[in-house]
Amino acid sequence: MLQASVLVQTGCTLGEGPVWFESRNSCLWVDIIEKTIFEYPLHTKILQRHPMPEMVSLIIPTGDSHVVVALQGGIARYHLDNKNFEMISDLDLDWTNIRCNDGLCNTNGNLWIGTTGIDHADGAGDLYYIDNKLTVQKQLNHLTISNGMALSPDNTHLYHTDSVTQNICCYTVDPSTGMLQFNHIAISIHKSMGIPDGMAMDEEGKLWVALWGGFGVGRFDPQNGNRIAFIKLPVPHVTCCAFIGENRRTLLITTAKKGLTPQELDQYPLSGHVFIAEVDVAGLKKFDCSL
Fold first, then answer.
1. Residue in 17, 29, 68 with CA at minimum distance from that of residue 200
2. pTM, whole model, 2 decimals?
């Protein structure tokens, strides 16, 4: 069993969206509820906070110091140095009771982005695909918590979970349009192991899945659905993970204290902090956003 250690004590209410910004040698993540982006450069180890106008769930580098962010309200572009914030698209949605959740860019830099109800109402979310002309196409309907996206090493399949189903589904990707076709259920996770949340793909085609309520990150084989490794954390609500560093053999892991009782917070005082774990396989490099 692999072990993790605290990288930064952030105490996030709902830490999420970890990402590696290679050109800045920085780890980034968000606190959705507290409307904040965090940046932690590994060379300075000085934590920086970037307040957002709405709940923010996703950050994707776009080159230089820009990131694309997904919020309650749509998609925006943000400059980490001069703090310039610019809305790109509201996706033509009414955001009163929904917000963005997890997302991923493909080889063209186009974006899949999921939504969820503010209170995770059943079927209130969807999955959209946005190309660099800002054309928005709905791809999956009536999801509850659209979550955890990862591409296969050959970029031909997308893994996605509607967390409440406990299933991670595999979709065939049309490389020219980004459209998805359901292929099969790749992994079914028993509730006793936690709820599947964010995920990351390694170079061997295995998925590292954060387990909400499951005290860790599991490494699963999508070919047979088996869990083949586990990173144990001293907190129950593990939300997402991303490979970082020059060789991408370190896993950055976000956690949350949302939903924990005062007694549970006393029992698990590291909840909401950000962790790292060294692993023996490299993660796939994720694609920057072209929006």
1. 17
2. 0.97
Q: What DSSP state is assigned to residue 247?
A: T
DSSP string, 144-198: SBEEEEEE-TTSSEEEEEEGGG-EEEEEEE-TTT--EEEEEEEEE--GGG-EEEE
Amino acid at 182: F
Residue with tokens 């998805």: 180
The CA angle 104-59-160, to the nearest 5 degrees, is 25
What is the rounded distance in angstroms from the CA atom of residue 149 to the CA atom of residue 16? 13
Q: Token match 């950000």: residue?
A: 274
pLDDT for the residue 64 = 85
Closest CA to 35 of 64, 65, 78: 78
Residue numbers in the chain where pLDDT is lower than 70: none
How wide is the angle at C-alpha 58 spanned by C-alphas 214 and 44, nearest 5°? Answer: 90
Query: Would you state the structure tokens that stand for residue 188, as one six-digit string?
Result: 């079914």
Query: Which H or E run includes 140?
Result: strand 136-143
Distance CA 182, CA 288 (A): 25
Q: CA 208, CA 267: separation in Å to the nearest integer? A: 26
List, by residue number, the catalytic residues.
Answer: 197
CB 171 within 8 Å of CB 157: yes
